[in-house]
Amino acid sequence: MRPTSEAELCEAIRDAGGPLRVRGGGTRDIGLPVAGEVLETGGLSGIVDYEPGALTLVVRAGTPMAEIEPVLAAEGQALSFEPMDHRALLGTDGAPTIGGVVAGNVSGPRRVSHAGACRDSLLGVRFVDGRGRVIRNGGRVMKNVTGYDLTKLMAGARGSLGVLTEVSLKVLPRPEAAATVVLSGLDDARAVAAMSAALGSPFEVSGAAHDAEARLTRLRVEGLAGSVAYRARRLAELLSPFGQAELIEEAATVAGTWTAIRDVTDFAGRDGDVWRLALRPSRAAALAARAEPRAARYDWGGGLVWLLMDPGTDLRARTGSFDGHATLVRASQATRAALAVFPPQPASVAALTAGLKATFDPRGILNPGEMI
Question: What is the pLDDT of residues 47-64, one digit of tens each?
Fold first, then answer.
């Protein structure tokens, strides 16, 4: 099914006789395989309202990112949370949509800065719940405190509570310039310490990542050209106790490096399962060592760790419990069926989750089993 209007979507959900597999661009095959009729959102496409002066964008959920980004770029603006493109890592094709980005709360390296995650830029949503009802929450400005914050609830729900039809987002000016400060030869623990020092500095670091295989630690500075040049030099001086820093300022090189970090392209095409860990940076190096991965990549200053593991490895059993969570992002269908893709929830949280599912999707037809 591929409805072309919100009314058609409501009718399709109301008339559904069984499970529905909600799909945007089909690029993020994460979670348990969902058995059901495919419900595509690509027919709900187009920019509804864009006000560059107000820094707001209203767009239908099925709109490809490839259509949104040039429109914003023409006004010198962008989505500040630089959403990851999963196609290389997962070996998928298709076109990522804004609805898929919001449904997955997909956020890139700038998450570690003031830009925050996708949900932090989300102003409002329209969606159709499991009864076929249209629900609207939030608005088109940041100050909106009426009612329940369903907007944030939908970010990361992966279509299990409702099918997004329209999203309102805050946009920000695109950085005029960017530079990368590179440290070489650090082990994981020293790299995390260096990233923490950089993020705690006054130089407004907007990216902090470490490649454990190559032993390369990268820090990004963005903004006005003169400010970037000054802050990058001062950051390199600050990090001198960790070794001699290299400064890279060539625009294409900096952009390509951080796109690769964002999309974890180093793991693309390499055999093995891919796990995504969110945890306290201070615990990242020790946990990665316990996991004994084939390869490790750190982002968000160590708060996000990507691990390439032997196929079928139960990472949670190997590492034991920790203050954070692990998600199985890439694996065979058999492994995803055998292991919990998303982190198990405490009983209290599971009860709340079940209650939300019963409220918004009482028949349990929207992406059943993928998350809930």
Answer: 999 999 999 999 999 999
For the stretch 74-85, pLDDT in tens is: 999 999 999 999
At the top level of CATH, which class does the domain 6-173 belong to? Answer: alpha beta
User: In sequence order, what are the residues at sequence separation of 6 or more whose Cβ sits closer than 8 angstroms to the Cβ of residue 230?
Assistant: none
For strand 304-309 and strand 273-279, is the pairing parallel, antiparallel, or unpaired?
Answer: antiparallel
Q: What are phi and psi of 38, to 5 degrees?
A: -75, 130
Predicted TM-score (pTM) of the model is: 0.93
User: Does 177-261 match 6-173 at the fold level?
Assistant: no
- Domain-wise residue ranges, the chain: 6-173, 177-261, 265-338
Q: How far is CA 133 from CA 17, 77, 151, 235, 365, in A?
A: 16, 34, 16, 52, 14
Q: CA 147, CA 125: separation in Å to the nearest integer?
A: 13
258 closest CA partner among 25, 83, 30, 76? 83
Query: Which fold would CATH assign to domain 177-261?
Result: Alpha-Beta Plaits (3.30.70)
Supply φ then ψ for residue 192, to 5 degrees. Answer: -65, -40
- Taking Cα atoms as reference points, which of 161, 167, 171, 98 lies closest to residue 133? 161
